[in-house]
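Title: Comparing notes on inverse folding

I've been comparing how different people in this forum approach sequence design from structure. To keep things fair, I'm posting one structure and asking everyone to reply with a full sequence. Here's the target:
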């Protein structure tokens, strides 16, 4: 499915998104104010007047892009439609997230219960995995004739393919959701990942260039509004869209293992929550000042911009390590991964005490 230049797709998506974000803030914003967790940093409670849920704009752009591209796809060839399926899966997750955002606004901090949300996420994930498997079958037949090596998900048995794929899918959704906690954090760390994927998929003949381009443009426009002090928040509508988009791109390319490195910050945030909860239940003590991880550094006295710059840099380093692993093999990949983990552990050890200063927008900013 040849598409227009991905650069044009990204630019047009960014311009449309920028206009729609502004319109959302002006028209819908006063109806979508959110509340913040009571045990989080005190200054976050002052952000309640910032409208949330604007991630629905990104989801709608992906939905429309898929509808626009569908007639251009060749019937009977899954490879020409795989980018459309990724667009639609991300859009469905964005719609689910927006319902959650709206319920949170109406009910306070409580949104859509997990027993309703999780089955939808699993269903969409399994459906996308099935569609990707048809693409993999075509890919396998094509590349087998050339003798080129294939990523392991292409030939994985179904009993391993679906559980592993669902783990990647749900992990990305939760990782993006946990990372959406500071002004500009999720959008900055995701742009690093999408920039790499976008560069790798610049060929207009590549069907996955469509969702990568639309997502990159819409997220770049969002960051303009979301940089501290944020004028809008993406909410679960945005975090689920972003998580589904990144997961879909990496799953469809067979880069399942490398996704964990490219979204290193997402993985670290999820791990920090798991470790914090487990340790508290077992020992009644917390190993971190607060979780997810970015709140730990806030409690240690760091400002939001400083944390965003650090986490974006670590995310970029994770992408570099994934590239090294892919191009230079396991030995260099393991070394890069060890260095990445050592940097994070070193920072946690150095900043392990709660700051004496009051945590607010003025005293912590640096």
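Reply #1:
Here's my take.
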């Amino acid at each position: 499915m040849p598409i227009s230049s991905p650069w044009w797709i990204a630019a047009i998506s960014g311009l449309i998104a920028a206009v729609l974000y502004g319109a959302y803030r002006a028209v819908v914003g006063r109806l979508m104010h959110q509340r913040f967790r009571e045990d989080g940093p005190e200054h976050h409670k002052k952000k309640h007047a910032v409208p949330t849920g604007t991630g629905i704009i990104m989801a709608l752009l992906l939905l429309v892009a898929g509808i626009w591209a569908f007639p251009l796809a060749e019937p009977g060839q899954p490879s020409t439609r795989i980018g459309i399926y990724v667009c639609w899966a991300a859009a469905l997750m964005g719609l689910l997230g927006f319902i959650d955002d709206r319920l949170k606004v109406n009910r306070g901090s409580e949104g859509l219960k997990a027993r309703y949300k999780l089955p939808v996420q699993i269903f969409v994930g399994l459906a996308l995995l099935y569609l990707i498997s048809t693409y993999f079958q075509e890919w396998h037949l094509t590349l087998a004739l050339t003798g080129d090596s294939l990523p392991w998900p292409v030939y994985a048995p179904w009993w391993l393919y679906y559980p592993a794929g669902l783990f990647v899918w749900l992990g990305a959704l939760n990782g993006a959701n946990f990372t959406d906690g500071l002004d500009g954090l999720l959008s900055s760390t995701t742009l690093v990942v999408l920039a790499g994927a976008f560069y790798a998929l610049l060929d207009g003949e590549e069907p996955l260039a469509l969702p990568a381009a639309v997502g990159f443009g819409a997220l770049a426009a969002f960051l303009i509004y979301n940089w501290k002090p944020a004028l809008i928040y993406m909410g679960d509508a945005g975090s689920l869209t972003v998580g589904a988009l990144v997961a879909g791109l990496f799953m469809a390319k067979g880069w399942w293992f490398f996704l964990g490195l490219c979204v290193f910050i997402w993985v670290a945030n999820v791990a920090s929550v798991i470790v914090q909860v487990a340790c508290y239940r077992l020992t009644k003590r917390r190993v971190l000042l607060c979780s997810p991880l970015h709140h730990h550094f806030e409690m240690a006295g760091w400002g939001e911009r400083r944390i965003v710059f650090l986490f974006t840099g670590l995310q970029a380093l994770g992408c570099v390590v994934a590239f090294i692993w892919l191009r230079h093999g396991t030995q260099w990949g393991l070394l890069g991964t060890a260095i990445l983990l050592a940097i994070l552990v070193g920072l946690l050890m150095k900043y392990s005490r709660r700051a004496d200063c009051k945590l607010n927008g003025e005293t912590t900013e640096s």
